[in-house]
């Protein structure tokens, strides 16, 4: 685990990604999350295992380039986004949609 997130693993995971492709991955026990762009794979694994009490067997990360955004004459960049696809061990699951 890197020193960036020592003692504050909850800051690694920003939010789960709920897209059509990510929802199809849930059937294969793969969950997609938006994570801090400085987080390394060991940080992500430790955060997921601690927050959801599951066993992670694999992580794939994607760090796409930042997109440009223009509002009138002002140009800027969107925030840096890193995606992580987490594969869980057989029998583990994360409840993304709580039943009411």
Name some characteristics of this structure.
100 residues; 6 strands
Describe this structure in words.
The chain has one domain: Alpha-Beta Plaits (2-Layer Sandwich), CATH 3.30.70. With 100 residues, it is of the alpha+beta class. β4 (68-71) and β5 form a beta hairpin. The protein has helices spanning 20-26, 41-52; strands at 13-16, 30-35, 56-62, 68-71, 74-77, 82-88. The chain contains two helices and six strands, in the order βαβαββββ. The N and C termini lie far apart (36 Å).
Rg for CA atoms: 15 Å
Q: Kindly estimate the percentage of residues that lie in beta strands according to DSSP.
A: 25-35%
Q: Spans with pLDDT under 50 lasting ≥5 residues?
A: none
Please name the CATH topology.
Answer: Alpha-Beta Plaits
Give the total of domains: 1
In sequence order, what are the helices and strands, one letter per element? EHEHEEEE
Query: Which overall shape is indicated by the principal axes computed on the Cα atoms?
Result: globular
Question: What's the tally of helices?
Answer: 2
- CATH H-tier superfamily: RRM (RNA recognition motif) domain
Largest sheet: 4 strands, antiparallel
């Amino acid at each position: 685990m890197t020193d960036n997130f020592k003692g504050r693993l909850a800051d690694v995971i920003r939010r789960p990604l709920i897209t059509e492709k990510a929802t199809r991955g849930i059937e294969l026990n793969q969950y997609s999350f938006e994570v801090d762009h400085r987080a390394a794979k060991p940080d992500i694994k430790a955060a997921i295992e601690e927050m959801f009490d599951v066993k992670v067997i694999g992580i794939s990360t994607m760090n796409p380039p930042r997109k440009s955004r223009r509002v009138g004459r002002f140009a800027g960049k969107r925030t840096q986004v890193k995606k992580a696809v987490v594969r869980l061990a057989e029998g583990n699951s994360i409840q993304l949609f709580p039943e009411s």
